[in-house]
Amino acid sequence: MRVPLSWLREYVDVAPDATPEDVLASLVSVGFEEEDVHGFGLTGPIVVGRVVSFEVEPQSNGKTIRWCQVDVGEANGGVRGIVCGAGNFFEGDKVVVTLPGAVLPGPFPIAARKTYGHVSDGMIASARELGLGEEHSGILRLVELGLDPEVGADAIALLGLDDVAVEINVTPDRGYALSLRGVAREYAHATGAPYRDPAERAFEELAQPTDGFEVSVVDDAPIRGRVGASEFVVRTVTGVDPSRPTPAWMVARLQLAGIRSLGILIDITNYVMLELGNPIHGYDLDRLTGGITVRRAHPGETLTTLDGKQRTLDVEDLLITDESGPIGLAGVMGGATTEMTDATRNVLIEAAIFDTVTIARTARRHKLPSEASRRFERGVDPLVPFVAARRVADLMVEHAGGTLGDRGGALFAEVFLEAITLPHGFVPGLIGVDYTDAEVVGALETIGCEVADSDAGAWEVIPPSWRPDLTDKWTLAEEVARIDGYDRIPSQLPVPPSGTGFTPSQHGRRRVANALAAAGFVETPSFGFTTEQQNDLHGSASGEHLPSVKLANPLDGQAPFLRRTLVPGLLQIAHRNLSRGFTDLALFESGTVFLPEPGVSYGTATVPAAAVRPDAATLAALDASIPPQPRHVAVLLTGNRVAKQPAQRAEPFDLADGLDAVRLIAAAAGVEVQVSQTQRAALHPGRAGVVTVDGAVVGYVGEVHPEVSAAADLPGRVIVAEVDLDALLAAAGDRVVVGALSGYPAATQDVSLVVPASVPAGEVATALTEGAGALLESLRLVDDYRGSGVPDDAKSLTFALRFRADDRTLTAAEATEAKLAGVAVAAERFGAALRE
């Protein structure tokens, strides 16, 4: 809301020396947010001049200029020669002259300069050049504004160009502040300055004609039981002259408030809307057919609004109609058929109260936000329409030459404001400040509440009609705190509850993330939504269809499903980075995936009311309506592990790096994993592995299939891995991740076993580990040989074994015995034999 200070001073005393920043500081103290300060951005000398004479001079470039002699007053140098390109003024016209040294909005400094063979000693200004609007058809003639000032007078003060506006942000619950009336009241609360309510008028001044013009409200489909229009007031003004100029002060105030001048009739309705907060609409009375009916739209109805667009109406839209059909979208925008024009002579003024929800929905449905809808959807004072209608009528009589008509109509309901019970002591207990009863009552009465003490240890508080946001004792307490000053509320940091810190699961997740980051991976959270095809491709081994959760109102219509896997998001991030020139990537993400069970319908539970604590059965139903959401961790590698450099070839990422990443994750989680060869639809055949812990599948690793990489616009080799982090941490249990180091030396031995070619090396390693027992500290596959000396259907696997005891130095015999025990288990399971 932009508030011109000259306008604000009409309703509240503002110190003469108060700066815009001072006014903003006062408004901030009562809960508004400071936005900006707006002015016309010009400085003098800018004066009134009279065109003494001019000579028309055609130019070789096709333009025609006027070489003018303009009297700007003896104090300003008398008659000056000025070149002007406009042709809409006459000898004797009084105009606005910007003299050398002036600065116009832009900034555009004015200086004497030679042009078209003359020295132009200043400039005759248009309304657009002065910042008074977008009109650029010609010079601003003061006679068109109804002004006849003295030559040489200060034009800045004359036109109100020395005014300035402060802008504040008005939250949706404080719609009353979208008016000068509301802001002036708040400024009075902040400073204690006397306040003058522009809506205060004698009752006899508001005598409303209730006959001569038929008005009715027919609402067969109220929203939430609320009729679309609760109040509708019309007045008539006859014999207006729409060609009359809008007063300069009104044009300046509207411009500072962010509304351009559109002619005297429309300017008056906008002016009163800003002044009182009640949107006003004016109709050309002679273009109306019969009376006015407020109703909902019929199916298939259309309306051409003032912006020239034909709109197909919804049956929920509230309309203003006459016998010819719709003539306006109630509370949003009027219709083109009855708009006020230059030919209008008789005006019907409408001031109404419309249902907030109806107006909000209509404005959003038609993508038609307006100054009117902005106020109606926040709530308008139900006691102000009579005042607003009369105020518009008076201004049209005064400035447009009209006569107050004797026709009119009014529909209104009694305004009933229910009292709110406010217990004594509630406000201090809630806010934490020792307010006295007098302070509580005084703050509430300051904002316009009626406060009466009851016998039940409480006050009965009736909020003012312009404050629909005051609905309960909590909102009243907030007002006391706001009016009394937020600076009285003590600042106390909450004391954290005692506890044991992170849970084991949280510790585990942090260890994994820190380990990957330390290894050079970059964490890249991705979009949590994807397509059903991506879920099927990357979420299953064979690419078969899997159940996925589809959002009813997705952010992206092309990705409406919750992800079953993290890999599609990493592929998208890799593509985005590659498109920006980052070719060597090591990425990881840790996040939840959504794994609905087949045949189960999710998201069907009834959402309980927000103000009621759900019972155990309701909470259980809500939990049952949510699919399982385990936390996974995934990595992606592409490009080079080692960049090309002198004496060093580039080393690209390969499957071994993916395996290392999986082992790193497992080590940080505190478990040991086994990797066996497998097949997956999204991975390269022969370059995919399944990750298991104690025989349970927890993830996979492999190289992305070239066709899948190409579909994701990823050139080159892409390695991915994804594991169920929750499953890893559950398998780890309470085992110690980092044990004590033994001070005794290790015994190392190698063993080469010949096994059938179809036996995975990981299963052979598991057998060796189980057979060797507790003395085996580590086991590593160092060779997989197939060739001379080994049967065609077999392979030779060589393992490096390391043995260590915690309490002694192992002998070679002990190490050999443990090794052979492992070989025995491998022989029993797979027919393994020592290679000679």
UniProtKB/TrEMBL annotation:
Cofactor: binding details: Binds 2 magnesium ions per tetramer.
Catalytic activity entry: tRNA(Phe) + L-phenylalanine + ATP = L-phenylalanyl-tRNA(Phe) + AMP + diphosphate + H(+)
Subcellular location, record wording: Cytoplasm
Claim: RNA-binding is one of the keywords in the record: yes
Binding locations of Mg(2+): D469, E478, E479
Location of the FDX-ACB domain: 742-835
Cofactor(s) needed for function: Mg(2+)
Primary localization: cytoplasm
HAMAP family: Phe_tRNA_synth_beta1
Protein's name in the database: Phenylalanine--tRNA ligase beta subunit
Species per Swiss-Prot/TrEMBL record: Microbacterium telephonicum
Source species taxonomy: Bacteria, Bacillati, Actinomycetota, Actinomycetes, Micrococcales
